[in-house]
Write a structure and sequence with these properties.
This protein is mostly helical. The chain has 6 helices and no strands. Helix 3 (36-91) runs antiparallel to helix 4 (96-114), helix 3 (36-91) runs antiparallel to helix 6 and helix 4 runs antiparallel to helix 5.
Length: 163
């Protein structure tokens, strides 16, 4: 069931419960709607309101924690990719193909992560297989480079450490 349908059903149920409460208030005898019974209903409503507020607060805090963690991970990944790209740029024009391949694989990874449908049951397995394939392609691209100067050797070592 989609979240829209579920939210609609919850709204209909709440509206129906409110209407039932209004009808019961008029139908029930007066001694059930005044005094101790009314106080007990008020206490239960207060307890349920408190529990709903706690659950909502925990839900919001959990969502914030997940968002914050993902944000830090994306910033770390972006920093590493930028350092790798700079190291390959320092290597020279021979690394242009490796830089282009890295940009393409990064674009594919972003499409896979953000373009994945909710119903994709193999998301984690597909993502893991794609990550391994990208890592192997990156290693092959770096192995294909043959440095001729000490500076290029150093740049290749930095790029290998960043990949």
């Amino acid at each position: 069931m989609s979240s829209d349908k579920f939210a609609f059903l919850v709204a209909v149920a709440m509206f129906g419960a409110g209407l039932l409460g209004l009808v019961l208030q008029r139908v029930l005898p007066e001694h059930h709607t005044t005094g101790g019974s009314r106080d007990m209903i008020g206490a239960i409503v207060g307890l349920l309101t408190l529990l709903c507020a706690l659950v909502t607060g925990l839900l919001i805090w959990t969502a914030y924690g997940v968002y914050s963690n993902q944000s830090v991970q994306i910033e770390t990944l972006a920093s590493k990719v930028m350092q790798l790209d700079l190291a390959l740029a320092d290597y020279g024009p021979e690394a242009t193909a490796a830089r282009a391949q890295r940009r393409d694989s990064l674009a594919k990874a972003i499409d896979q992560i953000w373009g994945a449908s909710e119903s994709d049951g193999n998301f984690a397995a597909n993502n893991f297989a794609s990550a391994i394939q990208n890592a192997r392609a990156r290693e092959k691209a770096l192995e294909a480079l043959h440095p001729s100067t000490d500076e290029q050797k150093q740049d290749l070592a930095v790029a290998s450490a960043r990949s």
